[in-house]
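Thread amino acids onto this structure.
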């Protein structure tokens, strides 16, 4: 995976024509994705809010336009009396949530947990972690 230095604070990781930056303080902690289109123009958007995006002839220009788009979006949220969304990287999580599943799936998972000497919770946590590993 190649790394490209775009500015003094931004290093992007290349996966084909897509560049990704982990959460950025410039953008309130949102993750940035940059894409090069077939014409060589750059599209920048938030991974968590893909509807907020901007184009530019260079990564720097696309990011500058994204900063303008983000400021306008924040102003629109405030004008409508809605809270500005907080990125997942800045939210607090308890580590607990409830999931409703089909009874048959529940039964199969409980049997698998029993066979493996695990609690149902431990088995499901292990399976979920394996799915979201980076």
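Threaded sequence (134 positions):
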């Amino acid at each position: 995976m190649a790394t490209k230095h775009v500015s003094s604070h931004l290093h992007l990781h290349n996966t084909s024509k897509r560049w990704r930056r982990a959460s950025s303080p410039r953008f309130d902690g949102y993750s940035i994705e940059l894409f090069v289109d077939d014409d060589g123009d750059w599209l920048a958007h938030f991974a968590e809010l893909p509807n907020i995006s901007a184009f530019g002839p260079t990564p720097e220009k696309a990011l500058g336009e994204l900063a303008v788009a983000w400021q306008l979006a924040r102003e629109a949220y405030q004008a409508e009396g809605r809270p500005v969304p907080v990125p997942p990287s800045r939210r607090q999580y308890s580590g607990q949530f409830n999931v409703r599943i089909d009874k048959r799936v529940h039964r199969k998972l409980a049997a698998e947990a029993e066979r493996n000497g695990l609690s149902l919770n431990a088995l499901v946590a292990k399976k979920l972690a394996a799915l979201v590993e980076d």
